[in-house]
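DM between two lab members

TW: hey, do you still have the dUTPase entry open?
JB: yeah, one sec
JB: this one, 161 aa:
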Amino acid sequence: MNWEELYDMQAQLDNYIEKNHGLLGADLFQEKILALLVELGELANETRCFKFWSKKPRSERAVILEEYVDGIHFILSLGLEKGYRYTYSELERTRMSETEQFNAVFTACIAFQMQATEDNYIRLFKEYLQLGQLLDFQESDIQRAYDKKNEINYNRQNKGY
Ligand SMILES: O=c1ccn([C@H]2C[C@H](O)[C@@H](COP(=O)(O)O)O2)c(=O)[nH]1
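TW: and the structure you got?
JB:
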């Protein structure tokens, strides 16, 4: 995956959004952490992985992928906020269940909020990518869905979102 290209696209989108809302150069770290936690909750809800009390099936793959790339947007954006960039490294497949992996991502997100170090950022990024592997998303799926959602995010801004 060409993460550099995605960081550049994310920087342009964030800049566009900030300009549109009179927030250019504002510190949006806390807002973006909460936004990521909310997206994680939405993603978990679409998988229904933790709903042991329900027999309803999970949402379709495309819906889950769209939620997943919302999280990618905010993780990239958090890196830009702090001046950190994830670069490719070999990822071990997690042995955790989906539920355990979601909890690991939440934990990594809170650790990064408490201590916004580069190490904690990379940990968060890796946990999120491992969640993507568990959900069976290939890099090409993520790239395509990111591009699509990035465009939707511009259209929303232009329509007074
Ligand atoms: O600074 C920002 C703010 C929002 N988004 C994008 C990420 C998600 O794809 C989408 C979430 O919007 P809601 O659907 O949750 O409103 O907005 C950004 O990329 N950068």
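TW: got it. The domain at 3-158 is CATH 1.10.4010.10 (all-alpha NTP pyrophosphatase fold). The mean pLDDT is 97.
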